C-alpha cells in the first residue's frame, strides 16, 4: 500500500488545479445557458494560469514521491511549464477559431485540461505502470479532440485514424513494458534499470525497442509518423496547435527519462536507434513539405522535421544535450503554435483559407502580423538572430561534442532544405499581390457546411491572433538575442 503524505501532494498542486478547472469548465458548459461555452474557455484559461503560478512556486525535489511512482525534479517542472504554455496558446487561439466557426463545443476545454494533466503526470512518472496510465490519460482525450466535429468528414477521419493507430502504438508500448517487468520483476525505473543492465541483452533490446515505438508514435518520428499529416489537416486548427506541441514536449521528457534511467545500460544501442530515426524524420518531413500546397499540411510535415532535430539531441545525449533539448522544446512550442496561428489570422466570411496562395499580399492587409510571421519562419529555419537558430546551434553542437559530426551536418542540410518551403510562405506574403479568393480555400465551418445559412462574419484580420503572433515573435527574438535567459533555465532542468 502506498502511503501518501501531504508533502508528496504539495508537489502536484498544478495538476490538482487543472483537474478542478476541468470539472469547473464542464459545469459552466453544461449549466450556464448564456455564454456557457465561452465561459468554459475562460475557466480553462484561468485554470492554466493558476496552475502555472503554482508550478512557479513548487520547489523541485529529486525524492521518490507516491511510493516511487512519481517525481517532481527540475526536469519534470520545466517540461510541465512547456505543456502549460502550449495549452494556453491553443485555448487563446481557439477563441478566434470558434468565433468564425459559429459552433463552440464547450467540452473541448475540459478535454484539453484533462489531457494536460496526463502529460504532466507522464513527465513526472518514474514507474512503467504510472507512465502507461498517464499516457492513456492524455491520449484518450486527444483522440476525441481530433474528431470533435463529427459532422465534418475531415475531422471525423482524423479522430478515427488517430484513435486506431494510437491504440495500436499503446499496445506495442505496453508489450515492451511487460517485457521489462518480466525480465526484472520490477516496475520502478530505478529498480528495473540496473536489473535490465544485467539481464539478457537481446531480450532487453527488444523491450527497449517496443517501448520506444509507442513513444516514437506520439512524437511523430518516422516511420511512425503516418497519422500526423492527415490528423493535423483534419482536426480544428487550434487543436492541431495543442496536439502538435504539448504531447511532443511530454514524450520527449519521457524518452529522456526512460533512456537514461530505465535503459541506461543500453545507451549506445539507444543512440544508434535515435540517430537513424533522426535522419529519417528530418529528411522525410522536409522533403514531403516541399510538395505541399496547403499551409496546414506543410506545417504538419514541418512539425515532423522539427521532431527530427530534437531526436539529434536525444541521440547525442550528454552534458551539452541536457541543456539543448529542453531549450529547443520550449522554443518549438512557441514557433509551432505561432506558425499554425497564421491560418487563423484572416477569415473570409466564415472561411479560413489554408492554401499558400491565400497568403498573397498579406503584408498589405496586416503588416505587423506579416512581419511577426516572418520572424517565426526565420526561427523555424534556424536563421539568426532568432531562438530557433540558437536552439539548432545547441543541438548540433551537442552532436559534434559526442562525435556525431555527420548527424549534425545532416541537420544543417535539412535546415537549408526547409528554407525552400518556408520561403514560399514569405514570398506569398511579401512579394505577391492578392488576386481574390485563392483556389483550394477550405471551409473551416462545419456548422455552416451542415446548414444553408450564410456565414455572419465579414472578412477581417484578427487582432487577437495578431497579438499572439507579435508576442511569439518578440519571445523568439528575445531568446535569440539573449539565449542565456532560457539556456540557464534549460540547464537547470536535470533528472
Highlighted features:
two-stranded antiparallel ribbon, mainly alpha, 495 residues, 73% helix, 21 helices
Poorly predicted residue ranges: 437-458
**What is the number of E strands?**
4
How large is the radius of gyration? Answer: 22 Å
Order of the strands making up the biggest sheet? 1-2
Distance between the termini: 26 Å
Q: How many domains make up the 3D coordinates?
A: 1
What is the makeup of the main sheet? 2 strands, antiparallel
Strand content: under 5%
Indicate the percent of residues in helices.
over 70%
Task: Name the helix and strand elements from N-terminus to C-terminus, one letter apiece.
Answer: HHHEEHHHHHHHHHHHEHHHHHEHH
Question: What structural class do the secondary elements suggest?
Answer: mainly alpha
Summed up, the helix count is: 21
Q: Mean pLDDT, nearest integer?
A: 87
- Indicate the overall shape: globular
Any overview of this molecule?
The protein has 495 residues and is mainly α. The protein has one domain. It contains 21 helices and four strands. The protein has helices at 6-10, 13-31, 36-57, 74-101, 107-124, 128-146, 153-184, 189-197, 201-219, 228-234, 237-262, 267-289, 295-315, 321-341, 362-365, 367-381, 387-401, 405-430, 446-449, 463-481, 484-492, and strands at residues 61-65, 70-72, 346-347, 460-461.
Sequence-ordered SSE layout with sheet pairings:
Elements: H1 6-10, H2 13-31, H3 36-57, E1 61-65, E2 70-72, H4 74-101, H5 107-124, H6 128-146, H7 153-184, H8 189-197, H9 201-219, H10 228-234, H11 237-262, H12 267-289, H13 295-315, H14 321-341, E3 346-347, H15 362-365, H16 367-381, H17 387-401, H18 405-430, H19 446-449, E4 460-461, H20 463-481, H21 484-492
Antiparallel strand pairs: 1-2, 3-4
